[in-house]
Amino acid sequence: MSLAVDPRAVESLLAFWADAGVDATYSDAPIDRLAEGAALLRAKSQPAAVVAAARPILVSNASPDVSTAIAQARAAAAACHDLEALAAAIAAFDGCSLKTQGARQAVVSRGPGDAPLMIIGECPGPDEDAQGQPFVGRAGQLLDRMLKASGLTDRVFITNTVFWRPPGNRTPTPQEQAVCAPFLERAIALVNPRMLLLIGGASAKAMLKRDEGILSLRGRWFEWTSSDGARELPALPTLHPAFLLRQPAAKKKAWQDLLTLTERLDRPERPH
Ligand code: URA
Predict the structure, then answer these.
(1) Average pLDDT over the chain, rounded to whole?
(2) How far is CA 170 from CA 123, 125, 235, 242, in A?
(3) Which tens digits make up the pLDDT trace of 207-255?
(4) Would the CB of 128 count as within 6 Å of ligand 1?
(5) Domains, the chain, ranges and CATH?
(6) Is residue 57's pLDDT more than 70?
(7) Residue 171 buriedness (CB in 10 A; 0-12 / 13-18 / 19+)
(8) What end-to-end distance do the CA atoms of the chain give, in Å?
(9) For 126-169, what is each residue's pLDDT tens digit?
(10) Residue 111 CB–ligand 1 contact under 6 Å
(11) Which residue, of 135, 148, 166, 175, has the fewest CB within 10 Å?
(12) What pLDDT, on the 0 to 100 scale, is given for residue 49?
């Protein structure tokens, strides 16, 4: 007996589940997507010529797959001479296992390519995954309101430490961040901002290679250094707007951080 399925009924059921907040489906039996991603990486890995190209990024327990993926990301990023090429290279890159764990598309950046401030968040969430732009969900809307109140709208280039949504909205792992880092570094080189605002603990820890929690890091200036040591930028960690949505009393601290940031950003640069 064949079962006729009315597509409108399916659409309506899916819309019902989406309204109820269901944005992923699961099979009865567990599937190890990490193993699948690792197998994909192994299949795509290239010979060691690329691996030798540059200084290693320090990731504890970096497996050969991760080291190979980092080297491939470095080579791909180095070949990009503008942000458009970089976005295309990221979208075409298969070395980050997040790509095979349910993300719909790469989420790279938004904002002017010559912005004086670069904001680096943690990772795309469901709204960003659906729309292909960073910080467009509820947290992003709060971020936009904060930027507007600080006079920073249109002066920021916004991106994340990883370019694919982690499954179940988990925090990206240090390995996933390390694989994406060469692209992020290339974005910093191409935009050439005067400073970085690091949003949330996972961003601050990855960018500054520090282990403290965000509540201790926030509001303090650090020096971000590129992996080849050639570029340094002032970097200010702050609280994530998703945290502020859950803990509105913490908004005061985030506001103080933005005042600290704008004071330095608007300070006239001393002639060298
Ligand atoms: N949270 C992030 O850290 N980045 C986004 O792009 C969206 C939410």
Answers:
(1) 89
(2) 9, 9, 24, 13
(3) 999 999 999 999 999 999 999 999 999 999 999 999 999 999 999 999 9
(4) yes
(5) 66-265 (3.40.470.10)
(6) no
(7) middle
(8) 81
(9) 999 999 999 999 999 999 999 999 999 999 999 999 999 999 99
(10) no
(11) 148
(12) 42
Determine the distance separating the centroid of ligand 1 and the alpha carbon of 123, expressed in angstroms. 5
pLDDT for residue 28: 55
Q: Is the CB of 134 under 6 A from ligand 1?
A: yes
Instruction: Say if ligand 1 is within 6 A of residue 129 CB.
Output: no
Ligand 1 atom nearest to CA at 203: 3
| CB half-sphere exposure, 185, CA atoms < 13 A | 27
Q: Is 166 in the pocket of ligand 1 (CB under 6 A)?
A: no
Distance CA 100, CA 82 (A): 26
SS3 at position 173: coil
Q: Output the CA 52–ligand 1 centroid distance in Å.
A: 33
124 ligand 1 Cβ < 6 A = yes
pLDDT of residue 2: 56
Residue 46 has pLDDT above 60, yes or no: no
Q: Per-residue pLDDT for 34 more than 60?
A: yes
CA nearest 195: which of 151, 260, 239, 135? Answer: 260
Label residue 176 exposed, middle or buried (CB < 10 Å: 0-12, 13-18, 19+). buried
121 lines ligand 1 (CB under 6 A): yes
Going from the Cα of 160 to the center of ligand 1, the distance in angstroms, rounded, reads 7
